[in-house]
Write a structure and sequence with these properties.
The protein folds into 2 domains: 2-163, Ribosomal Protein S5, domain 2 (2-Layer Sandwich); 167-308, GHMP kinase, C-terminal domain (Alpha-Beta Plaits, 2-Layer Sandwich), CATH 3.30.70.890. It contains 8 helices and 14 strands. It has helices at residues 64-77, 99-114, 121-129, 183-190, 196-215, 219-238, 250-264, 288-298, and strands at residues 2-14, 19-21, 26-27, 31-46, 53-56, 59-61, 84-90, 143-146, 157-159, 167-173, 270-272, 279-284, 303-308, 314-315. Its EC number is 4.1.1.33.
Length: 316
Amino acid sequence: MSTTATAHTNIAFIKYWGKKDPILNLPTTSSLSLTLDQFYTQTTVTTHAQADQLILNDIPVDTTRTHQFLNILREQLGNFGPLTVTSTNHVPTSAGLASSASAFAALTGAVTRELKLTIPNEALSRLARRGSGSASRSFYGHFAMWHEGVDDMSSFAESLHAPDMPIALVVAEVSADVKKVSSSEGMRRAVTSPNYGDWLRKSNAQFVDMQAAVMAADIEKIGSLAEDNALSMHALNLTAQQQPFTYFTSETQQILKIVQGLRQQGFLAFATIDAGPNVKIITTLTTAPYVVAALHDMLPQLHIETATSGSGITYD
């Protein structure tokens, strides 16, 4: 028996960067994201295996993290036998493009369907959060919110039910290499920044402002808030008292300057960056080709894709 689920990545416009409970994966802030059509994970779970195993992009890989997460699902859903997990990632892994979000959302959905359980997305988001916090948002299409909560039940994601809008994300892939500082390690260091408390307060206010901007379909306001939130987050990494670091490369910095230049020319373009060097540029469908052209003009070897709003989890 087998079940297949497909979940798309999401890019947070208001970031999650820090944990107040690493066991339950409770974040220090609420977050808000856009699900992307271009990047996704398709996962099939098959029963009657000898032991839990993970086959990623046709290659058997280390199963430790998957096995630990499946054991959490066994605790929550009732014990079930070993599974073969076969995943195809249509997104670079561990490069700051939210591959873990789509991966753990797809895995959670596939396991629950294989067990013949009918579980609403809100409850699925709580389960997937234990594997990857951002996975909680990948059950929903378009815009989603993850509420930080104070315990397991109150930390969940839901759809924002936002209006349609011509938003686009130009994804500038600086590197597909596995990042040297994992997201979990990066968060552990960032919370030691003396500016972390100020960032939390600012992010909480921006979370409220972003909801209003999304519901008003104000892409310029969405982009402005997202860029400020992201750059403020990355500033924490540089000011960490324990092992300061940065995910930025020289190309990351160059892309940020190109985006700023586009704005000065009157184009709607704002940058957001997750835990990695890759830059996502928030713009409109009509402006996206101009953004791509400007990037290619300055960085002709850069790999660029344009993504739009994507759907929530689906099952085959």
